[in-house]
Amino acid sequence: MSIKKVFVAAGLAAAALSVPFANVIGSPAQAGDVPETPFYGVLGIGVSNPEDDTASTDYFGGKLDFKGENDGGVAGTVGFGYQVNDDWRWEFLYGLASGDTKSIDISGTKGTITDGDYKLHSFTLGAVRDFDIEGWKVKPYIGAGVGLGFAEYSAYTVAIDGTTYTADGGV
Question: How crowded is the C-beta side of 125, counted as CA atoms within 13 Å?
Fold first, then answer.
């Protein structure tokens, strides 16, 4: 597995762990409500708290162990939804999370990364089933969806044993 694939896999894992914690614009219609329009907006903000990366490969002829130290950042979601009826709705969401890779360790050789910024993008289409439970002040729901995610890296430099290497960013 190449280092680039390791970073992409780690980025996708981090995107999956990035959780927006507040929906602040609009909400789907509640049971019994007749919305003026079946469309609504979604805006979420949260934090990205990725795990540190670990991977191993023997692709280069010998066994290499990779460890990367990551710092999280801001995560957000925007999207829109369509209320089909009192029980069902569709949502399309775009998510963005950011963070920074601080250091790497490849089979015991440590390196410090400068400007190791990354952005994790996601697109999700989901179906949501709302449950109206009499007497409850909240409306529970369950949803499922499919999505696509990718990582974008800035150009960065790595200092290993006094030698500085520059890598271009990309997907």
Answer: 1
